[in-house]
Amino acid sequence: xxxxxxxxxxxxxxxxxxxxxxxxxxxxxxxxxxxxxxxxxxxxxxxxxxxxxxxxxxxxxxxxxxxxxxxxxxxxxxxxxxxxxxxxxxxxxxxxxxxxxxxxx
Length: 105
Known about the structure:
Blueprint: H1 2-23, H2 29-49, H3 55-77, H4 84-103
């Protein structure tokens, strides 16, 4: 279950980061509520994951899921740069995260 908690924490991390774009400095109520709930859910799930996964591994994977997820959403939904080099850099993050998962004890 720890790995499932970590994966879900990463998804909520993506939702949290995307929500920040819509809060307009936390001046919009509902986007701000959504963002705060996503952040709380992400952190709670991360703490649950830490019960079975080493801290360094869990934190690196959590941030990797968030970074890659937000970058991909930015490219697909917000028209951000999707150059081959940028995609290659994201692929390196994915390889690193996969390596951490495979080498975790």
